[in-house]
Amino acid sequence: MADREIMYRDALREAIDEEMAANAQVFIIGEGIAERGGSYKVTEGLLAKYGKKRVRDTPIAEAGMIGVGVGAAIAGARPIVEILYVDFAMLGMEMIVNQAAKFRLMTGGTGRVPFIMRTQGGTGGGVAAQHSQSLEALFYHIPGLKVVMPSTPYDAKGLLKYALRQDDPVMFLEHKHLYMTKGMVPEGEYVIEFGKADIKREGSDVTLIAWSNMVPRAMAAAAELAKDGISVEVVDPRTLSPLDTGTILASVAKTKRVVIVQEAVRRGGVASDIASIIQEQAFYDLDAPITIVAGLNTPIPFNLELEKASVPQVPDVVAAVRKVLHHDIPMAAE
Amino acid sequence: MAGKKEAAKSNVSREELLKYYREMLLIRRFEEKAGQLYGMGLIGGFCHLYIGQEAVVVGLEACTKEGDKRVTSYRDHGHMLACGMDANGVMAELTGREGGYSKGKGGSMHMFSRAKHFYGGHGIVGAQVPLGAGLAMADKYKGNDNVTFTYFGDGAANQGQVYETYNMAELWQLPVIFVIENNGYAMGTSVKRSTKSTTLFGRGLAYGIPGEQVDGMDVLAVKAAGEKAVAHCRAGNGPYILEMMTYRYRGHSMSDPAKYRTREEVEKMKAEKDAIEHVRDLLLTPGLASEEDLKAIDREIKDVVNASAEFAKESPEPSVSELYTDIYA
């Protein structure tokens, strides 16, 4: 069937719509998702199609709604709980970390929690310190949680459909800056399994690992570097947990040089963990130290220029690639 | 609830009414200007306007003494102006400039003033409620008679942390007034679509906290209820809940077209319940002030607001070197 160009938010809606049509156990709850169609319009039209029982507005009560979702999942339903901002998911961390993540183990594998928390994070347009965080590392740190961060409409749809067919708790982390971005998505049925990285651009000189909104920036950096004859391979893990180390290590074996880009603050981040995996498993493949381009270790400031300066931009990525290639010596201090 | 006639009969002085008129008008004109600057792209991010709810903070601020504290949500511009924070500093924070209360790093939702005992400015719905009880706990610990006004909305009233706080506040007899600004809508979800227990102050009774519903569009009713609550708290009787029945004229934020309510509903509130028009009537009808007197105040406020906008445009952008400041003590 033909591909069409659609927006990230439309791709997410299609995934939810198709899975709701296919499985009566799938329902969605969240703040303003039914009558208003969601703040980012992901759920627009679903109330009319599936009714109040399956598309339900909640009070502003994140701890409660996450807990209710986890409980429903334990009992065999397939709830999607939409949390408006990942920052607000902090109110539900008890249910996510102490309950959902551990239930399968604590029940000796007899209990499963097919709970999906859809939320969004990242900077975008000056929404300040409590609405701009990239918090994937918090979930990544917890055994038992799957962490998904799609960067394109195609990935968003395929990964969300897969999430709704597997049986573990999934932190499905979208990015506020990506909802309106467009990409090709097939009309027909497809799913993307977790733990399968995608090579977004093939290259031979350096491996650039990025996820979520850092993928478009990595792609822009790769295009700019190509003008100078530098061949960049962009690897998008798509799911951080499970992490496709095979694809990452194969790319490293080919290029010998690695730059990892994350929007989240550098300290204690996923990029550091990926770097540790690479150095442990592919140290002798490397021709240069692994470089991380990450958010500064600061809360996100409101002022737009400061906000921009606090997270990686395309020139930062370009500079880091040149640095690992010893292409632009002496390098600017970080 | 106190009605218009009842209020008119009360012995409120000309000076007091003019003070309320001036303070409420300042908030309204400031917010209108903020809306304009947002439309012009000079203010980014979120901007939650207080237009329609002015009587709540103005009436309650009239009950405060030096040392009393206040903390609120992200719909905070009115609270800051009412407690005497400088319009220039608030507007410059909205434009993200160095001259703003948080040096341009906090934005519309995150401003503070130690001098005015204003503790923010919080973006997570309901999170200021336990903080407010904590502020009151510190005062009780220190042994003074200060009171903390902890403002939150009808939406926040459904957050679990509010009830953990109620329990401790009453258990420990903390001097905190929980002010529920019930404007009818939690973002786009009406109170009735959020809860079956729609008399929000009543939930405090389960924890032993007295409270009442107040006409939050009537500044005199707000003031009267505020004085009662303050007396209760200052006397060491623990917390009190005031459920202010109010209304916001604008959307939840600047990006909300407010399709969840009818235009007629908004127009009816403006026509019949407007807090500023109410005080205007109380001044003009008995001849306590002339149209000319009020026009002079309008001009004065227009000047303050215009000056704040100019200041907010002229104040420099913060330096990139500010990225690493104010993170650790």
CATH homologous superfamily heading of chain B: Thiamin diphosphate (ThDP)-binding fold, Pyr/PP domains
CATH architecture of the largest domain in chain A: 3-Layer(aba) Sandwich
Assign an overall shape of chain A: globular
User: How do the strands line up in the largest sheet of chain A?
Assistant: 3-2-4-5-7-6-12
Q: Tell me about the biggest sheet of chain A?
A: 7 strands, mixed
Domains counted in the coordinates of chain A: how many? 2
Biggest sheet character of chain B: 6 strands, parallel
Helix content of chain A: 25-40%
The overall number of domains of chain B is 1
Helix percentage range of chain B: 40-55%
Beta-strand residue percentage of chain B? 5-15%
Structure summary, number of beta strands of chain B: 8
Measured between the Cα atoms of the first and last residue of chain A, the distance is 48 Å
Overall CATH class of the largest domain in chain A: Alpha Beta
Q: What's this entry about, in short?
A:
The complex is a heterodimer of chains A (334) and B (329). Chain A is an alpha/beta fold. Chain A has helices at 8-22, 46-50, 62-74, 93-106, 136-140, 153-163, 214-226, 245-255, 270-282, 304-310, 314-324, and strands at residues 3-7, 26-30, 55-57, 78-83, 116-121, 146-148, 170-175, 182-186, 198-201, 206-210, 232-236, 239-241, 258-265, 291-295.
Account of the protein in words:
Chain A: Residues 6-181 form the Transketolase-like pyrimidine-binding domain. Chain A: Its cofactor is thiamine diphosphate. The complex is a heterodimer of chains A (334) and B (329). With 334 residues, chain A is of the alpha/beta class. Chain A has two domains: 3-186, Rossmann fold (3-Layer(aba) Sandwich), CATH 3.40.50; 198-325, Rossmann fold (3-Layer(aba) Sandwich), CATH 3.40.50. Chain A is built from eleven helices and 14 strands. Chain A has helices at residues 8-22, 46-50, 62-74, 93-106, 136-140, 153-163, 214-226, 245-255, 270-282, 304-310, 314-324, and strands at residues 3-7, 26-30, 55-57, 78-83, 116-121, 146-148, 170-175, 182-186, 198-201, 206-210, 232-236, 239-241, 258-265, 291-295. In chain A, strand 6, helix 6 (153-163) and strand 7 form a beta-alpha-beta unit. In chain A, helix 1 packs parallel to helix 6 (153-163), helix 3 (62-74) packs parallel to helix 4 and helix 7 packs across helix 11 (314-324). The mean pLDDT of chain A is 96. Chain B has 329 residues and is an alpha/beta fold. Chain B has a single domain (12-315), classed as Rossmann fold (3-Layer(aba) Sandwich), CATH 3.40.50. Helices cover 44% and strands 11% of the residues of chain B. In chain B, the strands form two sheets. Chain B has a six-stranded parallel sheet with strand order 2-1-3-4-8-7, with helices on both faces. Chain B has a two-stranded antiparallel sheet with strand order 5-6. In chain B, helix 2 (14-39) packs across helix 3 (54-61) and helix 5 packs across helix 12. The longest helix of chain B has 26 residues, at 14-39. Chain A binds chain B through residues 31-32, 35-36, 57, 59-64, 87-88, 90-91, 125-131, 296-299, 301-306, 309-310, and chain B through 44-46, 93, 96-97, 102, 104-110, 122-126, 155-156, 158-161, 186-189, 193-195, 259-260, 317-318, 320, 322-324, 327.
